[in-house]
Amino acid sequence: MRMKILVISNNSFSDVYNNGKTLKAMFSEFRKDELCMLFFRPHDEISASACEDYFLISDKEILKSVFFPRHETGAVIFPSDSMAIKEELMEQRPKMQRTKLRQQLRDIVWKMGHWNKRKLREWIEIQKPNAIFFVGSYCKFANRIAIALHKQLQIPMAVYYTDDYVVNAKPSIYRNSLIKSYQKLIEECEQFYAIGEEMADAYAQFFGKRFNPIMNIVDKSEPCPKQESTSITISYFGSLYYKRFDAIVKIAQLLNDRKTHIKKMYGINIYTSSMITEEQKIQLEKFGINSKGFVKGDEFKNAMKATDIFLHVESDDEDYIRLVKLSVSTKIPEYLMAYRPTIAFGPKEVASIRLYDKIDSRMVVFSNDKESLDCRLNRIIQLINDSSLRDELAQIGFDYACKHYIREVVARQFKNSLIKMTNEPTLNMAVL
User: Fold this and answer.
1) What is each CA distance from 383 to 141, 362, 396, in whole angstroms?
2) Under a CB-based contact definition with an 8 Å cutoff, are residues 272 and 240 in contact?
3) Which single residue of 57, 63, 175, 387 has CA 20 to 30 Å from 45?
4) Residue 60 belongs to some domain of the structure
5) CA distances from residue 135 to 131, 185, 194, 292, 415 in whole angstroms, order as listed
6) Is residue 403 classed exposed, middle or buried when 0-12, 13-18 and 19+ CB atoms within 10 A define those classes?
7) Is residue 364 part of a domain?
8) pLDDT digits (tens, 9 = 90+) for 88-138
């Protein structure tokens, strides 16, 4: 019996962007012809190496179908055509635009619209999937679509959560309705996944199902120590959502205030696709932070190699702590495997920060703990000053990544779990 997984997600498989990269790595042991994807957010550079069979239904198409019910919603998308459907990247929009009102309006539009049209049904008939893998989000409409296709096709379904919108969210009418939507979906699923151990544990307790943790996974590489130099490069890679920009400025300011204790020249670089306002540019200039824009491919690899210390930050704003409390950054495995230490700066309530503290507390500064702030900052200053300490922590991080985040091992185990769900023979694990 042929294997075919229908992946339903907001984001497509990607070679560039975080969620898409994570999904691509997870499914990397599948052949391209064993996967097909239904996604909802137009994106550039859809991965051709992960999958060739894509179907896109966008917000714009659904809105059109509200006014024109006969409109054939959605379309088959070929990876080579992905640039033609590029929209303004979500990374360039302030995260706060995702208000409860906007979420509710979006769900209403999708509920009124017509997504299950002839084009989609014909595409699914061609694909003939025998399982569904659904990437959960803040969208109730996506839950409804996943449930509908699960019942329509009579095939097993698994769900994967990468962000928490229910357990630690502020109480509200919308949260309550989202919880109910999650519960309906989860009752239809046979397997459950979450990004990191803390989210898996929290969701298991909340929903009464066993969730398996799975993070971003990376190819194993040979240790590549950074050559000794007269100056230290500290680099941040990623979005500036959730007030992470403010956190970068704050750690830069704290280090600047203690520059007399720092023996080495150092600079902080930001590599991001997020828009930087004129006001933010003034702050960057004030603290000597360099905005490098967005890099990918070889540029990304070269920027990582040129880095002495990576920077990971989270905001200590209470509202944003709630949003990211259980989430683990997809960049962390990449940082660790790159054989570089990290300065992790953020509140101790956030899973990403606690993970770094678990790996080695010498890399962590709790931004909201005044009692330990000076002590931990002194450790970071030592990290900047001492190349032997940088090498030691790089090795500790690299060993941790090799133990937990090797793509081949984790992806093979993941594939076997989905195969088991479809009652197909599992792969021979002896090759690992």
Assistant:
1) 47, 8, 14
2) yes
3) 63
4) yes
5) 13, 11, 10, 31, 16
6) exposed
7) yes
8) 344 334 443 456 778 888 999 999 999 999 999 999 999 999 999 999 988
Are residues 43 and 11 part of one domain? yes
> What span, in angstroms and rounded, lies between the C-alpha atoms of 315 and 318?
8
Lowest-confidence segment of 43-47, 185-189, 261-265, 320-324 by average pLDDT = 43-47
- The verdict on residue 223 lying in a domain is no
pTM score over 0.85: yes
62, 134: one domain: yes
Confidence band for 83, pLDDT divided at 50, 70 and 90: low
As for how many domains the chain has, the answer is: 2
Domain that holds residue 67: 5-217+406-431
SS (H, E, C) the chain: CCCCEEEEECCCCECCCHHHHHHHHHCCCCCHHHEEEEECCCCCCECCCCCCCEEECCHHHHHHHHHCCCCCCCEEECHHHHHHHCCCCHHHCCHHHCCHHHHHHHHHHHHHCCCCCHHHHHHHHHHCCCEEEEEECCCHHHHHHHHHHHHHHCCCEEEEECCCCCCCCCCCHHHHHHHHHHHHHHHHCCEEEECCHHHHHHHHHHHCCCCEECCCCECCCCCCCCCCCCEEEEEEECCCCCCHHHHHHHHHHHHHHCHHHCCCEEEEEEECCCCCCHHHHHHHHHCCEEEEECCCHHHHHHHHHCCCEEEEECCCCHHHHHHHCCCCCCHHHHHHHCCCCEEEEECCCCHHHHHHHHHCHHHEEECCCHHHHHHHHHHHHHHHHCHHHHHHHHHHHHHHHHHHCEHHHHHHHHHHHHHHHCCCCCCCHHHC
Query: What is the spatial distance between Cα 5 and Cα 65, in angstroms, rounded to a whole number?
Result: 28
For 149-168, the pLDDT digits (tens) are: 999 999 999 999 999 999 99
Query: 374 and 410: one domain?
Result: no
Same domain, 321 and 414: no
Q: Is residue 185 part of a domain?
A: yes
Residue 77, domain CATH: 3.40.50.2000
Is the per-residue pLDDT at 171 higher than 50?
Answer: yes
**Residues 44, 112: one domain?**
yes
CA 224 to chain centre: 25
